[in-house]
Design brief:
The relative contact order is 0.12. Helix 2 packs parallel to helix 7 (about 135-140) and helix 9 packs antiparallel against helix 14. This protein has helices at about 15, 25-40, 55-60, 65-70, 85-95, 110-115, 135-140, 160-170, 185-200, 200-215, 220-230, 230-250, 255-265, 270-285, 285-295, 300-310, 315-325; strands at about 5, 20-25, 40-45, 65, 75-80, 105, 125-130, 150-155, 180. The protein has about 350 residues and is α/β, with parallel strands linked by helices. Helix 5 (about 85-95) links the parallel strand 5 (about 75-80) and strand 6. It is built from 17 helices and 9 strands.
Length: about 350
């Protein structure tokens, strides 16, 4: 079993004694910065000049600076900008300012795991990865709680890198819920696998295929949408709150029997074989090389895939039906801020 850390295991003074630079003010950036500040940490938000996030951060009472200027005196530098821009920011604005003993930190290990960012030997390289979106990290902190985080150490120049990561996790509220050890490789590879095979890629493809099957059989697109997409939230909520066994207990026996007998006919041994191929592409760096090359080329294939997904008939039906249900989006914050500062 993985070791769990809680408040009693952390030394809050470690991060309280540091100047922390948060790069980016998107979903994670705003939550980390505000939680740290409310915990008494000296925080500066690093943004590009004329960033639309500058006014938001200042209005929240936070100090704002360019990354290069703040990096000159920062003791801990947390990268919370999108993966695709972190290398450029590091090379242009952070690396020239690094001093021995500084810690650079990440909430996702992609750029370190795949060699896009390689820090000098005299700095710590750590990870603090909350397992939830930024608005939830912020809200639970304000309510006196927290969400779990993973922490990892890729490079321990100071000898206390792990303790620094745990202290940071304490300051954002995660030790109230529990903090687990991982590695940069494990976090990155499992995160990419989960996104591609289950949470985003697999799920989206399953929903589209189910919708298409019903519509092609002559059923109303609206009925297909409700059955294959809309009601998915009911099941996901059950899974989130009670696990697989709790979900099976909560649905009808008809649904349980049908799911247990027919589900394995959809996700077959061939599907699992393909999953293993996807995992191998992640582990070997093939996916990373592909994604890096795609960004260097200006994302032409990615944009074509986005358009293809947006043009799928399920999207037109969904927009029309969701317009009838304004309660779905009332008061809900966006999960992703693609600007990242």
């Amino acid at each position: 079993m993985a070791k769990m850390y809680y408040e009693v295991d952390a030394d809050p003074s470690l991060v309280l004694g540091k100047k922390v630079l948060i790069i980016g003010y998107g979903s994670q950036g705003h939550a980390h910065a505000l939680n740290l500040a409310d915990s008494g940490v000296d925080v500066t938000v690093g943004l590009r000049e004329n960033s639309p996030s500058t006014d938001k951060a200042k209005a929240a009472g936070l100090k704002v600076s360019t990354v290069a200027e703040a990096a000159k005196t920062a003791d801990l530098i947390m990268f919370l900008s999108p993966d695709t821009v972190q290398k450029k920011i590091y090379e242009a604005e952070v690396a020239p300012q690094l001093r021995p003993g500084v810690a650079i930190a990440f909430a996702h290990g992609f750029n370190v795991r795949f060699g896009q960012i390689a820090a000098p030997a005299d700095v710590d390289v750590i990870m603090i990865a909350p397992k939830g979106p930024g608005h939830l990290l912020r809200r639970t902190y304000q309510e006196g709680g927290g969400i779990p985080s993973l922490i990892a150490v890729e490079q321990d120049a100071t000898g206390i890198a792990h303790s620094i990561a745990l202290s940071y996790a304490h300051a954002i509220g995660s030790t109230k819920a529990g903090v687990l050890d991982t590695t940069f490789s494990e976090e990155t590879e499992t995160d990419l696998f989960g996104e591609q095979v289950v949470l985003c890629g697999g799920l989206a493809s399953l929903v589209q295929a189910g919708f298409e099957t019903l519509v092609e059989a002559g059923y109303q697109p609206e009925s297909a949408y409700f059955e294959c997409l809309h009601e998915l939230k009911l099941i996901v909520d059950l899974l989130y709150e009670e696990g697989l066994s709790g979900m099976w207990f909560s649905v009808s026996e008809t649904a349980e029997y049908g799911g247990l007998t027919r589900g394995p006919r959809i996700v077959t041994s061939e599907t699992k074989t393909e999953m293993k191929k996807v995992l191998e592409e992640i582990q070997t760096g093939k996916f990373a090389d592909e994604w890096i090359a795609e960004n260097e080329a200006g994302q032409p294939h990615f944009n074509a895939l986005r358009k293809q997904a947006n043009d799928h008939p399920i999207e037109d039906v969904g927009r029309q039906l969701r317009a009838m249900m304004p309660f779905l989006s009332t008061g809900k914050p966006g999960i992703r801020d693609i600007s990242g500062g």
